[in-house]
Amino acid sequence: MANIYLPVGSVTGTATAVANVLAETLNAAGHNALVDANASVAALNAQSWDAVLVVTSTTGQGDIPANLRPFYVQLDEQFPLQNGRPFGVVSLGDSSYDRTFCNAGALLEERFFELQGKAPIPRVTIDATETSTPDDDALFWLKEWMEVALA
């Protein structure tokens, strides 16, 4: 059984819904998954998390949603080294904004690499113009991530 922290950044609620489905799946598999829409480095450090799974949409000009932005800034300012802790990123976006498509997920993935996190598989990008079931796309990716990150 693994403890998994799921910081979520959402504007319209889609990323939160996806994070909740992922957490339900992880919990059903015997893990302890916690979705946190008010993520913080304090919460990241408060428990012995075995893995981190970020779920975020992208807003504005490739920006991190307002509710997850403070977490991103704290990661930069406090620089909590992950020391090889597995992480994953589920990034939601709209490819009609091609230059900034899923940029929030890319920023968070880059930050966790800087913090010496280990991504067993690349982040998944889910395009709103190509799917009406982002949770299904995320669940497909989650299966592989679980096999590698939580083995």
UniProtKB/TrEMBL annotation:
<dbReference type="GO" id="GO:0016491">
    <property type="term" value="F:oxidoreductase activity"/>
</dbReference>
<dbReference type="GO" id="GO:0005829">
    <property type="term" value="C:cytosol"/>
</dbReference>
<dbReference type="Pfam" id="PF00258">
    <property type="entry name" value="Flavodoxin_1"/>
</dbReference>
<dbReference type="InterPro" id="IPR029039">
    <property type="entry name" value="Flavoprotein-like_sf"/>
</dbReference>
<dbReference type="GO" id="GO:0010181">
    <property type="term" value="F:FMN binding"/>
</dbReference>
<protein>
    <submittedName>
        <fullName>Flavodoxin/nitric oxide synthase</fullName>
    </submittedName>
</protein>
<keyword id="KW-0288">FMN</keyword>
<dbReference type="InterPro" id="IPR008254">
    <property type="entry name" value="Flavodoxin/NO_synth"/>
</dbReference>
<dbReference type="GO" id="GO:0050660">
    <property type="term" value="F:flavin adenine dinucleotide binding"/>
</dbReference>
<keyword id="KW-0285">Flavoprotein</keyword>
<feature type="domain" description="Flavodoxin-like">
    <location>
        <begin position="4"/>
        <end position="146"/>
    </location>
</feature>
